[in-house]
Amino acid sequence: MDAIILQILNGLDKGSAYALIALGLTLIFGTLGVVNFAHGALFMIGAFCAVTLQRILNISYITIDDTQKDFLGNPLKVESPYVKAWFGEDFGAALIDWSVPLAIILSIPVMLLVGYIMERGLIKHFYKRPHADQILVTFGLAIVLQEVVKYFYGANPIQTPAPGAFTGSFDFGVLLGFDPNVIIYPYWRLVYFAFSAVIIAAVFAFLQFTTFGMVVRAGMADRETVGLLGINIDKRFTAMFGLAAAVAGMAGVMYTPILSPNYHMGMDFLVLSFVVVVVGGMGSLPGAVLSGFLLGILQSFASMNEIKALLPGIDQVIIYLVAIIILLTRPRGLMGRKGVMED
Amino acid sequence: MGILDIKDVGKRFGGLQALSNVNLSVHENTVHAIIGPNGAGKSTLLNCLIGKLIPDTGSVMFAGESVLGRSAHEINQMGISRVFQTPEIFGDLTVMENMMIPIFAKRDGAFELAAIKSFMSQKDIVEKAEEMLVDMNMADKRHMHAAAMSRGDKRRLEIGMCLSQEPRLLLLDEPTAGMARADTNNTIDLLKQIKAERDITIAIIEHDMHVVFSLADRITVLAQGTPLVEDTPEKIKGHPKVKEAYLGEAH
Amino acid sequence: MFGLEKQDSRLLIVVAILTMCAPFILNPFPAESALAQFNAGYPDLMQRFVIFGIFAIGFNILFGLTGYLSFGHAAFLGIGSYSAVWMFKLLSYNVVPALILSVITAGLFAVVIGYISLRRSGIYFSILTLAFAQMSYNMAYSVLTPLTNGETGLQVYSNDPQYLKGDGPDVTHLFGFEMRAASELNIGGWTFDFSIGYYLSALIMLASFYLAIRIFRSPFGLMLRAIKANQTRLNYTGISTRPYTLAAFVISGMYAGLAGGLLACMDPLAGAERMQWTASGEVVLMTILGGVGTLLGPILGAGFIKYAENIFSKINENVLHSWFSFLPDGLESAVVWFFARFVGEGWHMTLGLMFMLIVIFLPGGLIEGGQRIGRLFKGKSASNNPPAE
Fold it and tell me: Which of A236, B13, C83, C135 has the fewest CB atoms found within 10 Å of its own CB?
């Protein structure tokens, strides 16, 4: 029992990331009709927003401290970040410590801008092109973005720790009446899960309760009719793309303490997220979220030693296997709608 | 017994009885039109004929065999060729290639890897396709991309493709829907010509009464999912029930 | 010739002459000159041209004719390589059994994967093939390690049985002709290499090309093109489309397996990275770059990409400095900095940009580009001609 709860918890954070990326993919696909292979790159760019902020906050000036000597006997050079000088020692240190959550503030305008440029500059011209063309052009874009990031940040993963307050682990088992140290769960993963739940709820609320969201939902259901109503759907779709980019970016920012960002993390997540979207049902937002969590948890179960002993290598293929089975038995995915992408 | 026998066909969608007690027979070498106002159940009936829908009750027999539950290519191989509301042709291919495909399908069946056949001459196929293009007055367009033609020409090509298979039944689904007046007249003339020159059985499903009066030997009027009357065009014209069915509908 | 139309025979002959003379054509610069780095006439690279040519020709039979975009064809390339190396390990270094087995195994895998994936179309098909390829890739690294030797890659060891080896050579060979054997010809400052490996690959490529032409022109090929044009009409014309798409999928899978087998014949080593989805993306790019659905396009695309990859990754900042040394200092460093982003390590950036530019501006690929230029010269009179195949 405790092992099962632990695996469910372990699956939640990965599942949250899948769900957030898949949500954006579905929004873009459902509204714009575009299959965006560069969506993983947006997640990656978000993650590197966190890296950037961390670096900015750590920009330091060097002073020579005569009271201390290094091992050669020379005066020690002390690096002190500007933020500490400007905002005081304590507040500056807190800023640096909290750089990951703070990066969300940076990532939102950055991602909206990236999304806007992408949609207006490239995606817009591909609304009427075949899906194959959309896949290929965004695939190319993903490679380019990935290489740009690689140039600026190098090929190695970069450590971006969570704030000190969240670095510990939470003994979840005690709460549920198990022995101590059986179900241990890092605080940050809990934060990530809560964060994604909030974002997902916010996106759904936005689509459900605002006029803007209503038009978008109508557009997802029947694009032509909404166009005929004289509503300028294109402008809203640009905004939608920006929103999807921001969601992916924020998902990336918050994921950095769990997985040190590297330039190819976007691609790694993209393939899986596409599988998630297809399993959930192309064009279904609840489907994307549901299957994101489902597959995340399944994957974490498959990596249990007991199961790996039974079915070696299952952790490597479980997601693909599930996707294949679902697509063959429920061609529209778990919650897919009729008439979406059936040509 | 006709070549196509529809017996006691009924179909329900949730609370809507789309078809009930449909009985009709299409006889060989006749043109049989099924007409009716919007929502009379024409499309549902058509979908039952081509295997897309399976009716809740009744049977649809073509030449003594049931068509129910068969896939599109099987129904075609039984001898039914279908013309669509909007012409369905191979837009990316040339007119000549468009014409060759149904002839291959007639000769080689539903699937033919043709490893050996493909090394042999396709002269007979080409000749037959040429002949059909001449019949359809399209010989000069043979190298054109089919997608580049006018709607009327596309319709002409589609009908030619169906005829090239020498079908036992030609099924026309609103052949003039959405067409300009001139194209409509052309299509009617073409169908008249086909009827005069060939021994062929045609079933037309049509919304527009005027199109069928000049073509049909027999007409079945469908209303609210059930056949109202079946008779010759002359008799249908003045039939009070038909007037009621059409006039009752606010156009 | 060989039952081909006149126009196709001409194409085949031109391709044959070009591949046979490739060691000359691709080495236009004297060996000692500064431009020698642009030469491509050495066996290793020429082999890659023709082998990836085979891969792309096969991919085009599926994607170009039926329009089904597979994002997992690299799996068959990898399967072909593994099969070939296993033949080397078990039998001998002779390439014939290796190639036969690689085509057969790739074909079998294609039957299974195709049968399942082809139950869906469009984007679903792409994702299904991608899922299968990623699954094979992950499995090659994990569970299947006994078969694939995991991250090290599969290779022949001296204690492998090699039951049929006898006293045959210790390198890959075709009945005694060693693949790496090459003769060098020196004329003036020029050096030309003729390797057995290249000529074997080239002959196999020509045979594959011939077969592809036959498929394109056959009734079978016509049906495949009809699938792309209008599946509904084809069904109502009495054709069952699924066996056709499956046949096309298996044929293109076998082509990929053959290419994978040949790669292993030239260098008896097989690794899972050959199956990665970026490799699947590469063959898509080759086909698109050359021209989807055209006969010659995939070969051109494969050659172009492999040449660009080779040249771009060879150039470094020093080379750039020597090129732009005529510029004033500040400008020079700026220009060098800019171009350095696209060469050497930055080759992938160039690849990505090429991907985008081709899809945006030249969806018909190089062949269409060539035709456009041709039309410009011929003037408007040519525009009414029937579209070229």
Answer: B13
Same domain, B57 and B173: yes
Statement to judge: residues B74 and B173 lie in one domain: yes
What residue numbers bound the domain in which B124 lies? 87-166
Q: Based on the domain organization, do B199 and B160 belong to the same domain?
A: no
CB C348 within 8 A of CB A147: yes
Higher pLDDT, B64 or C54: C54
pLDDT reported for residue C389: 42
Is C237–B161 a contact, with Cβ atoms under 8 angstroms apart? yes
Whether residues C220 and B112 touch (CB distance < 8 A) is answered with yes
- Between A and C, how many CB-CB pairs are < 8 A? 112
Out of C69, C116, C348, whose CB is closest to A147? C348
Q: Which of B150, B166, B182 is the last residue of a domain?
A: B166
CA distances from B31 to A95, B214, C97 (A): 84, 11, 63
Nearest to A282 by CA among A29, A38, A37: A29
Query: Long-range contacts: B247-251, Cβ < 8 Å, 24+?
Result: B249/B37, B249/B38
The alpha carbons of chain C give a radius of gyration, in whole angstroms, of 22
Among B88, B97, B109, beta carbon nearest to C232: B88
Give the domains, in start order, of chain C with CATH numbers: 6-289 (1.10.3470), 315-389 (no CATH)
Q: Which residue type sits at B124?
A: D
Report chain A residues whose CB lies below 8 A from the CB of C359: 133, 136-137, 140
Strand partners, A64: A77
How far apart (Å, rounded) are the C-alpha atoms in residues B220 and B40? 12
Torsion over CA of A321, A131, C387 and C52, rounded to 10 degrees? -40
d(CA C167, CA A112): 68
Q: Give dist(CA A183, CA A172) in Å, integer.
A: 5
* Domain final residue pick, B166, B200, B223: B166
Query: What amino acid is encoded at B234 in this protein?
Result: E
CB-based touch A/C (3+ pairs, under 8 A)? yes
C-alpha distance from residue B153 to each of B96, B157, C225 (Å): 13, 6, 21
Name the residue with tokens 């596409």. A274
DSSP 8-class letter at B94:
B
Q: Where are the alpha helices (DSSP H) in C91-144?
A: 95-117, 122-141
Q: Are residues B29 and B131 in the same domain?
A: no
Calpha distance A142→A40 (Å, rounded):
8
Give C361→chain B minimum CA distance, Å. Answer: 21
Q: B141 and B36 in one domain? A: no
Q: Do A140 and C354 touch (CB under 8 A)?
A: yes
Q: For chain B, what is the domain count?
A: 2
Beta partners for B126? none
DSSP A240-259: HHHHHHHHHHHHHHHHTTTS
**pLDDT tens-digit readout, B186-224:** 888 888 888 888 888 999 998 877 778 888 889 998 888
Distances (CA, A) of C378 to C291, C297, C382: 21, 22, 6
Contact C230 B111 (CB under 8 A): no
Hey, what are B102's tokens? 């149904």
Q: Is the domain of B109 the same as that of B94?
A: yes
Say yes or no for a CB contact (<8 Å) between B89 and C228: no
For B77, residues 6+ apart whose C-beta sits below 8 A from its C-beta are B105, B109, B110, C238
Q: Of C99, C62, C118, which is closest to residue C298 (Cα–Cα)?
A: C62
Would an 8 Å CB–CB cutoff place C126 in contact with chain A?
Answer: yes
For position B56, which CATH number holds?
3.40.50.300
3-state secondary structure of C329: helix
Instruction: State whether B187 and B235 are in the same domain.
Output: yes
Query: Is the Cβ–Cβ distance between C204 and C128 less than 8 Å?
Result: no
Inter-chain residue contact B105 with C386, CB threshold 8 Å = no
Tens-place pLDDT, residues C351-384: 888 888 888 888 888 888 888 888 888 765 444 4
Whether this prediction's pTM lies above 0.80 is answered by yes
